[in-house]
Amino acid sequence: MKPGFSAMTVSALTLGFAFLYIPILLLMIFSFNESRLVTVWGGFSFKWYGELFRNRLLLESIWVTLKIALTSATLALVLGTLAAITLVRFVRFRGRTLFSGMIFAPLVMPEVITGLSLLLLFVAVDWDRGFSTVVVAHTTFTTAYVAVVVQSRLLTFDEMLEEAAMDLGATPLRTFFVITLPVIAPALVSGWLLAFTLSLDDLVIASFTTGPGATTLPMRIYSQVRLGITPEINAISTILIAVVALGVITASLIQKRQFARRGGHG
Amino acid sequence: MMDAKPADVRGPQEPWRDPSAVPLIEIRDVVKTFGNFVAVDDVWLDIYPREFFALLGPSGCGKTTLLRMLAGFETPTSGSIRIDGVDMSAVPPYRRPVNMMFQSYALFPHMTVEQNISFGLKQEGMGRSEIADRVAAMLGLVELTDFARRKPHQLSGGQKQRVALARALVKRPKVLLLDEPLGALDRRLREQTQFELVNIQESLGITFIIVTHDQDEAMTVSTRIAIMDRGRTVQVGTPGEIYEYPNSLYVSQFIGEVNIFESRVVEAGKDHVTVFSPEADTTIFADRGLDAVPGQEVYAAIRPEKMSIAKTPPEDAGHNCISGTVFDIGYLGSISVYHVRLANGTKVKVTTANRHRFVERPITWDDPVWVWWPPAASVILLA
Amino acid sequence: MQQGRPAPPPISPGPPPTPFEVLDRTLPPTSPWAIGARLISLIEKRGRSAVIFIPYVWLVLFFLVPFFIVLKLSFSEAVLAQPPYAPLLDLVDEAGNWYLSARFNLSNYITLLTDDLYVRAYLSSLKIAATATLLTLAVALPLAYAIARAPESWRLTLLMLIILPFWTSFLIRVYAWIGILKNEGLLNALLLGLGLISEPLIILNTNVAVYIGIVYSYLPFMVLPIYASFDRMDPSLIEAAIDLGCRPSTSFWKITVPIAFPGIVAGCMLVFIPAVGEFVIPDLLGGSQTLMIGRLLWVEFFSNRDWPLASAVAIVLLLILVLPIMYFQRSQARRAEREAPQ
Hints:
heterotrimer; B: alpha+beta; Rossmann fold; CATH 2.40.50.140; 2 domains; six-stranded mixed sheet; 8 helices; elongated; disordered N terminus; C: mainly alpha; MetI-like fold; 3 domains; 15 helices; 4% strand; globular
């Protein structure tokens, strides 16, 4: 069976992608609606973008969210990479079952439980809640994602490359930095981006673990959305989606070009 | 094990020589293109019942595409395929009287050996007890009765290969297609399996078509071989015909080792040819006729094992005799390979069977030697 | 004054010191450089232990320990205080006599078991999550298959289109449906405009809206593992089935789906488990009668400030999910082992 489009697969793809994208497109379109009402098109306007830039609280929360996401994604990258190396390279050590359990569990753990348990920890040790607690919480749950991404890359990594480097006189640590890291770098980048996005996106865990002065963007959006539809939220959503889409498309174009350059007639 | 079967059991020995024989498979002017690439280029083949037919060629020669067209996975761009007199163009692969043994074996990983083998029969809607009987018989034939309840991942390579064979044969197809069936096995197992395949084919009387790039395999198992090159069949014949009388430089070089000398025709007759080769610096005489004119450029091809080598010249050192110096010797156990350099620099390969224990070397490095061969060993090929 | 370091040990014949070891010996012991160098030389010497140690400790501290705190708290009593719970163990001074008081309290669990609200909430969470998972599977299966069967040059793009919404905010994607599903929303406007319905459908604030929200938000999690199984599959397996007399449509159910089964199960777990504890979707799209345990926990915690009861809710939720979670982990570990080079 050679690959190709058939009537069935084309309709599955059309319906599937319509389902995925129409809500987002409508959301974006109505951010330019003059009227506050969802179903009434009051004419094209940038009114809500103007409102957005006057909303100081919202703008502040963007900055807080970015700082949290940058810090926790970087921490999660380090921890997740070490964890992935542990899982792939050290087949036997005491407590491995517990370890792999702790790595994979956050992937499916309901957010309310993660949030609640971390908050109770912070209360128990009297840790002032705020920026640092959210960072710790986000690092903990995004580490799992980084570990999974890096792990799947390490599984296909040819260990003979490392053996060759060590045979040529590189110490294990040097081998890691000069051989292993560059080879798995793409997985590290996607792991970091994944952790970054998850942190940007998180509402539940941040709501539990945050404190004064560390209100994140999803929390602000949530409190406005609960009150009903506000085109201002459509406007910020449109900006976020545009930024993300641009980033993802650029990244995949770069990847595609590299792939084409490397692949071809291999 | 390998007791020879009487000729009448196998039917006519060489149906392709019998003008009244009806071919089972008729491939007529079949062309298959993928975009601009011509995978199969105007192939015409007749394959007769009970044949073990090999499609042999390097990778990319179109042999697998041809096989897949027989199975129905590819549709010919033009031309037609008839199996047992029925045109196959409108018959989907799941209705064709052919079954295929895949290169990767394609055993269903979620089914046991038994379930894999019975899968095809269940599709026919055959009764439960009949399926059980047939599967049991098939398991016996491939000696896997004890492994019936295993899953494919619990089997060795050779066992997987036999399950794949059993699964394809249990439906009693008119034709069994084998796509590089032994490619994944190691050499010893491959040789053993080749004989088993021939035995099974002879005992079941099913027509086998095998695709392979391994010339030894094709020579061992098949009744006839079609050598393919860039989508075309360049020669079709029995293993002996192809080896002894290649019809082109390509075939002679593809099958076995050969010494090639560029030559010019001196004289061509009905039952002989004489050519002169400046490369070999000798006159070469062949005892088969050739349709050529004097002065025409041809190639003389001589198999290394058909040459004799000695430190003294033969008695009638006229034609088919050259002299040079031994510059390398390869001792391969059963045979030895002598590399001889002629005075003009041409290199010639000669092999001799080591019939006697290798005690002392009659011929050694830097020895001046004579090399000669009988007229029947010279094959003259048109350029 | 800094204390002088002990003299470096005499250089013994053996492997030459690494640059980090040299740094370690020459720098003052408290400078950050020295600590860094010592850490690195430690990693060089005991690399294995260090690599395991760092993430291990982090996960124990911030993943395992918090669970025990939740467990402990679930046996406590709620009080009006800061923090709002009574300690489980306490040193009590009663007329000069110190004794350790342990108040082990099962009342939270008794509440959960006897109060109809909680039992119904657990059951309805499981039901909603299971229904939504099946719906997601129904949408994802043809989609994953269509992508796997698409021409090679298209596949990366199609996959990227599946993943792209995942990179945009979850909250925003759920929010987008409010405008569509509202009584005076776009869907009703469209259907009314087409004359298909005479009065608006009530979808928002019902379970249907929750199903739509879950299918929509979790679709990539279902599509990706199923696609991966389809993609990994040897295409000659389908050809073999067809060659043996199976129609292409039958071969999909007899061969493709069973072989992709691990991927399907993984996808279902990735949707089902988080969906059981989902908060945002039932909160924004569900109605007052949409009873889901994640939302209830949130309410107990933030509105009623009953932390012990919220903890007990979490523990019971975990107990319910522990089997699927362990199953998921096992399959993940098995997958990792299978893919590991021999």
